[in-house]
Amino acid sequence: MAFLAATGRAFLLFLSATGRLALFTASGLSHCVRPPFYPRQILRQMIDIGYYSLPVVGLTALFTGMVLALQSYSGFSRFQAESAIATVVVLSVTRELGPVLAGLMVAGRIGAAMAAEIGTMRVTEQVDALSTLSTNPFKYLVAPRLLAGITMLPLLVLVADIIGVFGGFLVSVYRLGFSPAAYIANTWQFLEPVDVISGLVKAAAFGFIIALMGCYHGYHSRGGAQGVGAATTNAVVSASILILVLNYLITGIFFSTK
């Protein structure tokens, strides 16, 4: 009976957390489309998520494209298929590596920052002070972050795609001896719009998940500095896991018929 009781408690806690997250998500989305809006807060979050994340995302994409070109060459050279390196690099970066790696890097940087900021405001009662001043915390804290995450992640991923493909181009041309014109021609020949669009759709979903997890765990943090630290950790871990799950689901939707 003790085992059944423990299983039941865990299941009820899971349902409670799922319901709380669903209500939080619905409330946050509803405030994203209803006035009043806070343009300065939205712009601030867009700069934090987009502009300040650009260096780490760009470096990650650059070296990912370079390593991918090297690894592809070492494998394809065994089958005399070196001409396929450009295709592998561009498809891998635009479909998978660009959005996933950018999402994980932004989750580690922005998700933690959101959870820490809102969590600190929660434990120091600044969130309650906003309600006292007739300012809805969801409207002021959550909605701007959700909007910024949805809009800025696709732009980051688009830049990451370009930088990643450029990294593969640098290695292929200046180290492996490929012809620049032939490499670019192979890149454009096999790249289709759905490859880029699927990556941008993933990026928008990942941006929403990162902002949602950061706001959710920060908003529900309790217990002072220790609670803020736990909320920060939970935000990054949950966002990373959901990014990987959503990546599989969206990939299945776009490419299940191919």
List strands and helices in order, with pairings.
Layout: H1 2-33, H2 39-51, H3 54-76, H4 85-123, H5 126-132, H6 137-174, H7 180-190, H8 193-219, H9 224-255
What does this protein look like?
The chain is mainly α and 258 residues long. The protein has one domain. It contains nine helices and no strands. The termini are far apart. The relative contact order is 0.16.
Our measurement of the CA-to-CA distance between the termini, rounded to an integer number of angstroms, reads 50 Å
Largest sheet: number of strands, sense, barrel closure: none
Strand content: under 5%
The proportion of residues forming helix, as a percent range, comes to over 70%
State the main characteristics.
9 helices; mainly alpha
What's this model, at a glance?
With 258 residues, the protein is an all-alpha fold.
